[in-house]
Recover the amino acids of this structure.
């Protein structure tokens, strides 16, 4: 996997400090380093959020050791405040920041193009096009960072991070384990007088990096033939190579691996003499604008990209999209085998949708059910980033607003000020620590009547069960100090706090009713381990998972359980309601929901009827 | 060697990713270039999952262009239909006929579709098919969890893969936890048998 390749590359480069806040599609980089950290002598931590991750890694780098920070694209928004000024101070030990972008929003709330952060911070940015490059270039990125004393941005996308491809390993370099912070006030203390000077230093450094960009093998002519030129990078390079093959075009291809500083002269020399140039890139016309600027003095070259609608500005590209766009633009027929002779669109229309949903036994489902029951469904639910965003699906339909990590709390404050209906903010445990605390303090300070529900399932579940401050488990797998959510809440000045077990429907409903009656900000912590995690742990310990079952003669087939919960373990088979013993986690919530007491725990295995 | 493009479709939790990794790893063992595309995170949770495996002398993109799949390995019938855009009438369809009903159907929001209807659609458009009830076979092997490996066995039985059956087995050994290895090998072998029987009964 691309992410594993990046992790390996960091080890080969002698990385000492690795920090992250998990986020798809970046998570496996740091997760893999976490697995080996203890044995390899690497320090790895799951930081509370991305800016803290960058600050921690930067601190270590300033002492002279090599550091890596990994995050998803939107995580870099959180870290950007530190990043942009770090460009001024520069670093000492190599410091690489991986930003994994998500064109197509496979697992994200937006598909922003983080190449612009390289431009905004004026920092070197590399973009690999496969796993091998990802591994090799991360090693180079550390060298480059140290040479110019600059943080390096390393941009991947989902199809690089989550593509599996063969990788040839390199040797592991010697690592520097200890360092020392040597003060240099004019360089590291960014008061206005010093910052102005450091900005000039950054501009000068980047002039030198530009020379590397013009002459390095990262920006490389891959094919050299014909009258048409392609400028491309990253995942788009692969689609371009395949599209050229499929259409049988004679063409030259320039692959850009160093996105910033942009190799203007190289591009200018490349496109000279072509009748037409195609820029193939995902999302924004980043390379296209640079190519147009490089070509401005050349006159007659026609440049195709986003700005003349050759390719869309949204979503992922694919070999199909690029091939079709190219065939259309060049007036070439599509090869026969490229067009499916199956009426797939018509068939697709008849299919029932299958969106991602909460897992069997998910404690969030139980909390959401209790919310609907206790609050009579009149509340506005500001939801947040995590598995619980899946609550929007029927039948629960919990979630009226979702913006970014922690936004539920702040937005709820604003809504509460101007309307009468109760306002709920829903955050997970990891999201609570990441970005919700300032919002909560704001609610206390400005007396916003919001109900904050913290869904504490002991994990950053959506991204792969990474630990967080509430678990106390560290990135190197040791048990550290747990930070208790309700103590933090109390420390923020909240006076109405309750902790409930969401698997206890009545207890949860009662607590929610009290919270809604309270005159100021109130907090309910719904605590129960993620059902996937709990099941895994039970299996590992050899413990039996005892499922529930439907008592056939008591079941009236009212389907209250299915209509209220939508748990994937409850099915209808030949008109009978059945609980799938293979996936039921034994949470008991359906048994509490059933009005006819027709659901009970399976007493022995023989009764399961599997 | 000709390029081999395999689409694997299924429901989150059915082991789509593991199946893809076993195929990719097998191709790697035999010295091919490989790309496997995966989607993690939000898209995985009980939803529709698709994964591409591309094997050849030189592969660039991890995703398969429309209409160019040589093999569709459908771990679930509705999800098989959902990704037919990657197939053409020449594609080999290996499909598990055991339906996993989406919650939209259970709650009465979406129209139901039977396994029988789906088999009819597949038979109407494709000549080359292996349709088996992997659930039955998986239970015989020891657990419904290994339906994906049964299907992989059925695929291996067709001789449409560039890799040897033993390489696939070796790959299962490398990627499956030792605790469940025996179960998986049993499922694979029963899958091979079922695939062969299915093919021969049709010719």
């Amino acid at each position: 996997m691309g992410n594993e390749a990046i992790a390996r590359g960091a080890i080969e480069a002698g990385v000492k400090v690795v920090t992250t806040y998990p986020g798809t599609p970046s998570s496996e980089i740091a997760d893999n380093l976490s697995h080996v950290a203890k044995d390899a002598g690497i320090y790895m931590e799951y930081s509370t959020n991305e800016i803290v991750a960058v600050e921690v890694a930067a601190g270590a780098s300033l002492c002279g050791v090599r550091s890596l920070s990994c995050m998803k694209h939107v995580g870099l928004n959180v870290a950007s405040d530190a990043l942009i000024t770090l460009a001024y101070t520069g670093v000492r030990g190599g410091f690489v920041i991986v930003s994994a972008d998500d064109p197509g929003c496979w697992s994200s709330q937006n598909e922003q193009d983080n190449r612009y952060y390289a431009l905004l911070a004026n920092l070197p940015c590399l973009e690999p096009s496969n796993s091998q490059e990802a591994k090799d270039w991360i090693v180079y990125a550390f060298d480059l960072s140290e040479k110019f004393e600059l943080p390096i941005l390393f941009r991947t996308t989902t199809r690089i991070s989550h593509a599996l491809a063969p990788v040839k390993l390199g040797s592991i370099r010697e690592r520097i384990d200890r360092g020392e912070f040597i003060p240099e006030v004019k360089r590291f203390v960014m008061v206005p007088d010093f910052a102005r000077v450091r900005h000039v230093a950054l501009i000068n450094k980047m002039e030198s990096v530009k020379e590397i960009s013009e002459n390095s093998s990262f920006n490389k002519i891959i094919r050299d033939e014909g009258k048409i030129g392609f400028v491309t990078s990253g995942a788009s390079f692969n689609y371009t190579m395949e599209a050229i093959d499929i259409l049988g075009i004679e063409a030259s291809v320039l692959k850009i691996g160093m996105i910033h500083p942009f190799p203007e002269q190289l591009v200018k020399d490349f496109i000279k003499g072509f009748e037409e140039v195609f820029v193939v890139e995902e999302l924004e016309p980043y390379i296209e604008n640079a190519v147009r600027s490089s070509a401005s003095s050349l006159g007659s070259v026609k440049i195709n990209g986003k700005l003349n609608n050759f390719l869309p500005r949204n979503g992922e590209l694919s070999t199909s999209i690029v091939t079709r766009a190219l065939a259309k633009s060049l007036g070439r027929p599509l090869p026969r085998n490229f067009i499916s002779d199956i009426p797939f669109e018509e068939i697709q229309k008849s299919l029932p949708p299958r969106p991602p949903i909460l897992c069997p036994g998910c404690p969030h489902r139980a909390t959401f059910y209790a919310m609907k029951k206790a609050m009579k469904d009149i509340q506005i639910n500001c939801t947040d980033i995590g598995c619980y965003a899946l609550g929007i699906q029927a039948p629960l339909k919990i979630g009226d607003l979702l913006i970014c990590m922690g936004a539920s709390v702040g937005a709820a404050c604003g809504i509460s000020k101007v309307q009468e209906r109760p306002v709920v903010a829903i955050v997970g445990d990891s999201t609570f620590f990441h970005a919700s605390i300032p919002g909560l303090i704001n609610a206390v300070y400005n007396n916003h009547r919001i109900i904050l529900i913290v869904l504490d399932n002991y994990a950053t579940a959506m991204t792969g069960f990474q630990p967080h401050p509430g678990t106390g488990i560290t990135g190197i797998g040791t048990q550290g100090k747990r930070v208790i959510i309700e103590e933090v809440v109390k420390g923020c000045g909240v006076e109405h706090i309750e902790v409930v077990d969401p698997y206890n429907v009545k207890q949860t409903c009662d607590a929610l009713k009290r919270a809604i009656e309270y005159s100021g900000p109130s907090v309910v912590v719904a605590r129960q381990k993620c059902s996937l995690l709990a099941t895994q742990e039970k299996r590992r310990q050899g413990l039996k998972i005892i499922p529930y079952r439907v008592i056939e003669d008591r079941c009236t087939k009212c389907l209250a359980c299915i209509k209220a919960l939508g748990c994937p373990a409850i099915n209808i088979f030949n008109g009978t309601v059945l609980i799938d013993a293979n996936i039921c986690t034994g949470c008991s919530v359906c048994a509490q929901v059933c009005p006819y007491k027709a659901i009970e725990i399976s007493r022995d295995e023989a009764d399961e009827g599997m | 060697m000709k390029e081999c493009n395999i689409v694997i479709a299924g429901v989150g939790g059915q082991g789509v990713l593991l199946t893809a990794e076993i195929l990719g790893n097998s191709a790697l063992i035999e010295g091919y270039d490989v790309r496997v595309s995966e989607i993690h995170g939000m898209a995985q949770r009980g939803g529709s999952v698709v994964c591409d495996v591309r094997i050849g002398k030189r592969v660039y993109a991890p995703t398969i262009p429309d209409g160019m799949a040589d093999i569709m390995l459908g771990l679930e019938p509705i999800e098989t239909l959902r990704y037919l855009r990657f197939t053409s009438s020449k594609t080999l369809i290996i499909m598990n006929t055991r339906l996993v009903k989406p919650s939209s159907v259970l709650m009465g929001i979406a129209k139901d579709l039977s396994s029988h209807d789906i088999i009819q659609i597949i038979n109407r458009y494709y000549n080359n098919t292996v349709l088996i009830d992997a659930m039955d076979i998986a239970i015989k092997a020891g657990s419904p969890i290994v339906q994906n490996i049964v299907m992989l066995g059925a695929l291996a039985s067709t001789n449409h893969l560039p890799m040897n059956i033993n390489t696939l087995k070796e790959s299962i050994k490398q990627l499956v936890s030792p605790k469940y290895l025996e179960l998986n090998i049993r499922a694979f072998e029963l899958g091979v048998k079922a695939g062969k029987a299915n093919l021969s009964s049709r010719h």
